[in-house]
Protein backbone atom coordinates (compact mmCIF):
# COMPACT_ATOMS: atom_id res chain seq x y z
CA UNK A 1 0.00 0.00 0.00
CA UNK A 2 1.31 3.45 -0.90
CA UNK A 3 1.88 5.79 1.99
CA UNK A 4 -0.15 8.97 2.04
CA UNK A 5 1.24 12.22 3.41
CA UNK A 6 -0.76 15.37 4.07
CA UNK A 7 1.39 18.51 3.86
CA UNK A 8 0.13 21.80 5.33
CA UNK A 9 1.99 25.09 4.88
CA UNK A 10 1.51 28.81 4.39
CA UNK A 11 0.87 29.76 0.75
CA UNK A 12 4.17 31.67 0.54
CA UNK A 13 6.18 28.68 1.79
CA UNK A 14 4.40 25.87 -0.05
CA UNK A 15 6.40 26.14 -3.32
CA UNK A 16 9.73 25.83 -1.47
CA UNK A 17 8.50 22.88 0.56
CA UNK A 18 6.87 21.22 -2.45
CA UNK A 19 10.10 21.49 -4.44
CA UNK A 20 12.49 20.79 -1.58
CA UNK A 21 10.93 17.97 0.40
CA UNK A 22 11.36 14.38 -0.62
CA UNK A 23 8.26 12.61 0.61
CA UNK A 24 7.47 8.99 -0.16
CA UNK A 25 4.18 7.95 -1.67
CA UNK A 26 1.26 10.18 -2.51
CA UNK A 27 1.22 13.72 -1.10
CA UNK A 28 -1.87 15.86 -0.60
CA UNK A 29 -0.92 19.53 -0.19
CA UNK A 30 -3.07 22.05 1.66
CA UNK A 31 -2.51 25.73 2.24
CA UNK A 32 -2.87 27.06 5.76
CA UNK A 33 -5.77 29.10 4.42
CA UNK A 34 -7.74 25.89 3.82
CA UNK A 35 -7.43 24.07 7.14
CA UNK A 36 -11.00 22.74 7.27
CA UNK A 37 -10.40 20.78 4.06
CA UNK A 38 -7.02 19.56 5.34
CA UNK A 39 -8.64 18.28 8.55
CA UNK A 40 -11.40 16.54 6.60
CA UNK A 41 -8.81 14.89 4.37
CA UNK A 42 -6.85 13.70 7.41
CA UNK A 43 -10.00 12.33 8.99
CA UNK A 44 -11.20 10.47 5.89
CA UNK A 45 -7.87 9.31 4.39
CA UNK A 46 -5.93 8.30 7.53
CA UNK A 47 -2.53 9.44 6.21
CA UNK A 48 0.64 7.83 7.52
CA UNK A 49 2.21 11.27 7.96
CA UNK A 50 0.81 14.73 8.57
CA UNK A 51 3.67 17.10 7.68
CA UNK A 52 3.23 20.66 8.92
CA UNK A 53 5.45 23.59 8.04
CA UNK A 54 7.36 24.40 11.25
CA UNK A 55 6.98 28.16 10.72
CA UNK A 56 3.20 27.76 10.46
CA UNK A 57 3.17 25.49 13.52
CA UNK A 58 4.65 28.33 15.59
CA UNK A 59 1.65 30.58 14.91
CA UNK A 60 -1.59 30.59 16.89
CA UNK A 61 -3.57 29.10 13.95
CA UNK A 62 -0.83 26.49 13.49
CA UNK A 63 -0.94 25.44 17.15
CA UNK A 64 -4.75 25.26 16.99
CA UNK A 65 -4.49 23.10 13.85
CA UNK A 66 -2.04 20.72 15.54
CA UNK A 67 -4.32 20.49 18.57
CA UNK A 68 -7.25 19.63 16.31
CA UNK A 69 -5.21 16.99 14.46
CA UNK A 70 -4.31 15.37 17.78
CA UNK A 71 -8.00 15.13 18.72
CA UNK A 72 -8.72 13.20 15.52
CA UNK A 73 -6.67 10.28 16.89
CA UNK A 74 -5.91 8.88 13.46
CA UNK A 75 -4.47 5.39 13.95
CA UNK A 76 -0.89 4.81 12.76
CA UNK A 77 -0.48 8.46 11.76
CA UNK A 78 2.41 10.65 12.86
CA UNK A 79 2.69 14.43 12.85
CA UNK A 80 6.00 15.86 11.72
CA UNK A 81 7.20 19.42 11.49
CA UNK A 82 9.11 20.22 8.32
CA UNK A 83 11.48 23.07 7.65
CA UNK A 84 13.46 24.06 4.60
CA UNK A 85 17.20 24.08 5.18
CA UNK A 86 19.27 27.10 4.29
CA UNK A 87 21.59 26.67 1.30
CA UNK A 88 25.15 25.66 2.14
CA UNK A 89 27.94 27.55 0.35
CA UNK A 90 30.49 25.54 -1.59
CA UNK A 91 34.10 26.35 -2.41
CA UNK A 92 33.07 28.03 -5.67
CA UNK A 93 30.57 30.32 -4.01
CA UNK A 94 27.56 28.52 -5.43
CA UNK A 95 24.99 26.94 -3.19
CA UNK A 96 24.54 23.29 -2.51
CA UNK A 97 21.39 21.93 -1.00
CA UNK A 98 19.28 24.89 -2.04
CA UNK A 99 16.44 22.54 -2.94
CA UNK A 100 16.76 20.36 0.13
CA UNK A 101 14.64 20.42 3.21
CA UNK A 102 14.92 18.82 6.56
CA UNK A 103 13.04 15.53 6.31
CA UNK A 104 11.57 16.11 9.78
Characterization of this structure:
- The protein is α/β, with parallel strands linked by helices.
- It is built from 4 helices and 7 strands.
- Helix content is 34%, strand content 29%.
- The strands form 2 sheets. Strands 2-1-3-4-7 form a 5-stranded mixed sheet, sandwiched between helices. It has a two-stranded antiparallel ribbon with strand order 5-6.
- Strand 1 (4-9), helix 1 (14-20) and strand 2 form a beta-alpha-beta unit.
- The longest helix is centred in the middle third of the chain and has 13 residues, at 60-72.
- The two termini are 22 Å apart.
Largest β sheet strand count, sense and barrel closure = 5 strands, mixed
Average pLDDT, all residues: 83
The CATH topology: Rossmann fold
Alpha carbon gyration radius: 14 Å
What is the CATH top level name?
Answer: Alpha Beta
Helix content: 25-40%
Seen as an oligomer or otherwise, the chain set is single chain
Q: How many DSSP E strands?
A: 7
Order of helices and strands: EHEHEHHEEEE
Whole-number total of structural domains: 1
Question: How many angstroms does the end-to-end distance come to?
Answer: 22 Å
State which percent range the strand residues make up.
25-35%
Tell me the layout of helices and strands.
Layout: E1 4-9, H1 14-20, E2 26-31, H2 35-45, E3 49-53, H3 54-57, H4 60-72, E4 78-84, E5 88-89, E6 95-96, E7 101-102
Parallel strand pairs: 1-2, 1-3, 3-4
Antiparallel strand pairs: 4-7, 5-6
Amino acid sequence: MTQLTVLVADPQRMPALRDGLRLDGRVLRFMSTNLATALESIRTNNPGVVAVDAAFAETAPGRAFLDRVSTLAVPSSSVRLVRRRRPMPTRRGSTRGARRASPW
